[in-house]
Task: structure prediction
Amino acid sequence: MRQKIKPGVAILILASLAAVIWVFFSFQKDNRLAAEYIEEKYGMEVEIISETQPNFVDGHSYEMAFKEQEDLVFTVTEHEENYATIYRDDYKPLHKAYEAQQKAESLMPQLEELGFTAPPEGALIEQVVKNTITDEAVRWLGLGTENSFETIELAEIEALTKLLELVREQNIDVHIINVSDGQKGNGVAMDLREMDEVQSIEEVAAYINVSILSELGPAGERMQAKWQESAIQSETERFRFYDEWNDQWISCHQANDAGDCINLLANITFAPGELSRQNPHLEEDLDAIFDFFDSIRPKLIAVDLVMVDPEREGNPVRFFLREREQYASTEELIKDLVKD
Result:
């Protein structure tokens, strides 16, 4: 015997069905508007790869790719501002990083002739997008070498000078060149934004400051030993000052006249899944990391943070500590740098 559906229940079912249909067609409409905006902006046909559910905190975002550039996936975020829909995307900086990667890969035979190799981990080109409104970003060219930078000889300075010339001649659009020796954790960092007048071997040697550089390995070891206990006290169950590939999680890039490391790279490893916006304590964890480095004396002039999480796909989260000044809060920094 069939049971009749009560009128109230029928109305509820129809209302729920109507809501589902409305949401579906609203998403379809949003999809079309977002795609049309991007196609008009860049003059290319786009495909939507995926999208997130809209919320008041992160907005509504899409992963897209142009049909003629299917391997370059970028993000478009939809925001409501002053009752208007605003679309922001990171295509331009990602395209610049993509082009830099292509150029660097094509130059690997020449780079290998100079004694440089692909980086032991990560990509040749790494990037941090600092502002999706202005498309401001910082890009690194990362290389390795079989030589040891514990001490630097004339031949190594010559190779670094030729590397600098090659990057300039080929117009590889990067801001920093990082070379790691992979043996003692020593490295050389050349910030092209500071090197407009640096041309000759002598000028490159002076920029790198060879007399100090020969002590960078021991300086990093001393710093880690001196501050290890304080670092452990700053840790939580969600992160460690740790590098899974190297016993030393600090690499010193510059030391003062007293031999104290004042410019360094630091590796931090998060527990699986914790370097994520889904971690409700991420702001607290990052503030603990920042406070630790702020407490070090003599005061550090630069800290290059590399934060990894075994569950994150792609490159680690990497940025210079001084870039915090560009954000109103740690929460804003997380929104910009930590992409779930």
